[in-house]
Design a protein that fits this description.
Elements lengths: L7 H12 L4 H8 L3 H11 E2 L2 E2 L1 H14 L8 H10 L5 H23 L6 H6 L3 H6 L2
Helix pairs in contact: 1-4, 2-3
């Protein structure tokens, strides 16, 4: 079953049914929702013993706006992580794209004779781990 968030209309229905004294189970059955959905909605958005659908809807919009966006793990990302996994600690793996691009630029500069004054020093000062990997 696909997940759908409560609509503003459903929130008003929850409010009116709750004020009329109906149980959360009855409200859930009448809206064709899980009882836990109704329970969470009332728990999250209840203001001092009363449920206000306008406030609840505004809170939902704010939470949705500031929610972290899901990151899709593409096959390329999986392959990249799989290649990094045996070579580096998590800290090094996080920095690797930056390190790799710096090394590529410095190599290009050295090969073209346009390296900076301290380019040879930079390349020679790479950690033994980078030298071992050929970077």
């Amino acid at each position: 079953m696909a997940y759908t968030q409560l609509t503003e209309t459903e929130r008003y229905q929850i409010s009116s049914l709750k004020e009329a004294g109906f149980s959360q189970l009855f409200i859930a059955e009448s809206l064709k929702r899980s009882p836990s959905t109704i329970s969470r909605e009332l728990k999250r958005n209840q203001e001092v013993q009363t449920y206000c659908p306008e406030q609840a809807h505004l809170k939902v919009l704010v939470r949705r706006h500031f929610a972290k966006k899901a990151v899709k793990i593409t096959p390329e990302v999986k392959r990249y992580v799989f290649q990094l996994k045996p070579k580096f600690s998590p800290e090094m793996a996080a920095k690797w794209p930056t390190i790799r691009s710096i090394i590529a630029v410095e190599r290009h500069r050295i090969q073209n004779g346009t390296g900076t004054v301290d380019t040879p020093y930079y390349v020679s000062s790479l950690s033994p781990r980078h030298k071992l990997l050929g970077y």
